[in-house]
Fold this protein.
Amino acid sequence: MKLHFPHLPQNILLELLNEPEFSISLAYLVDFEDHVNLSIIPKKYSIELSNNDITVSIIIYSGFELHEHYELKNRTNVHLVCFSNVIPEMVEFQNMQIKFIDKQSWLFSIINRSERDFISKLKHLKNLSIE
């Protein structure tokens, strides 16, 4: 694994997003439309998923609001998201509409939308009713 960020969890997130099921499912969660051929671009304060139809910026560090947010102003269908429920409450981000993404919801979206056999089998495990 190539380390882009100083903290391991953000590097793991970046690696996961490079799997199409993960990035496509995340983009689906923010606007409920299918988006393919997403480019994954690690930046200093965020990770960007984008194509010609959508831009999703995953905010991972404070500083995004000063150094990266302005780049998105001329784009359409931009979504700011985070996996921390603290980020939307921070004063730095008070004037931004940031969507909190629950990791478990993202996981279930990946499982439900995947066409890979192994991941599809996880659907059966999730729905298994043994009493």
About this structure: The chain has one domain: 8-127.
